[in-house]
Design brief:
Length: 295
């Protein structure tokens, strides 16, 4: 297993690399849009927008994630057991106690967000509180604590905000292009550049998804393993993963840009093979098999 400091350093480095490529991608898209309409200042707009969104993702991405989940702070009296579990696991992990939120979503899931352990939050759906016993809930919380300790939440939270903007820009670009069909000057432009712009519009949502895929799968295995180290009870997380993956209630309040944040990706309306190709998480069966090897 990688050392904690190595993983943390890699996540911080990958976050800045992600932001660099995001800024380049968005600026390029706006440049092509400006070329199409003879308004090259749009490239400057794209640069400013991407840089601004990167800062928003870094400093306020967790607020957006909690807002998407419609989460509210967990009352210390009503959810005293959860507060105790989080506090104890945070002490074992050597990090400050994260803020705790409860989402009214009836599906069984949980996620962590925030740029560092000092600004981290854990959100639990009502569905997960309904179906898990104490040991299983401890395993889930330990998994999220592991993400926070390893700084996974930094790159994952920033990714959520940036991938949302990529999809949004692609949609705006497509709408603008549809109004420019009768522009005779635009029609005279190089067809190669026009094709490149169309490709950007088509590929931007795919790029958004690939960004999520790139930052998530390996982190789930490490977070699972770290959770076992914290709890010393693999069966707790194993039982939780089994119950969550088999729970039939679909997600009610979340953004698709948040798929990679959850402990298990919310169910989609695709075939099993397609889901396996585009899943932001490794198969639950594989995760359980690795956990059983630690028992």
């Amino acid at each position: 297993m990688h050392s904690a400091y190595s993983v943390q350093y890699q996540n911080v480095r990958k976050t800045w690399i992600l932001i660099f490529f995001f800024v380049a991608l968005v600026t390029s898209g706006f440049y092509l849009l400006g070329w199409f309409y003879d308004s090259y200042w749009l490239a400057i707009v794209g640069l400013g927008l991407s840089l601004g969104q990167s800062l928003i993702g870094y400093f306020f991405g967790d607020k957006f994630a909690l807002m998407f989940a419609q989460a509210e702070p967990a009352d210390p009296t009503k959810y005293s057991q959860i507060h105790v579990l989080v506090e104890n696991l945070a002490k074992i992990a050597g990090i400050p106690k994260p803020k705790i939120y409860i989402s009214p979503d009836p599906s069984a899931n949980a996620f962590a967000c925030g740029r560092d352990p000092e600004h981290a939050s854990i959100c639990l759906n009502q569905g997960i509180l309904k179906i898990l016993n104490k040991n299983e809930l401890e395993g889930v919380i330990a998994h999220e604590i592991a993400h926070i300790k390893n700084h996974d939440t930094l790159v994952m939270t920033v990714t959520m905000v940036l991938s949302s903007l990529v999809a949004f820009i692609a949609d705006i670009g497509a709408r603008l292009a549809s109004f420019g069909g009768e522009d005779k000057e635009a029609a005279k432009k190089s067809p190669i550049l026009l094709i490149l712009y169309i490709l950007f519009l088509v590929l931007a949502p795919i790029i958004s998804l690939l960004i999520q895929l790139a930052v998530s799968r390996s982190r789930e295995y490490l977070a699972d393993a770290t959770a076992v180290v914290l709890t010393r009870y693999p069966q707790g997380l194993i039982g939780a993963l089994q119950k969550i993956s088999n729970y039939p209630v679909p997600a009610a309040s979340y953004s698709t840009a948040m798929n990679h944040l959850y402990i298990i990706e919310p169910k989609q309306n695709f075939g099993e093979m397609v889901e396996s190709w585009f899943s932001t998480h490794p198969p639950v069966a594989d995760r359980i098999a690795k956990l059983r090897q630690m028992a």
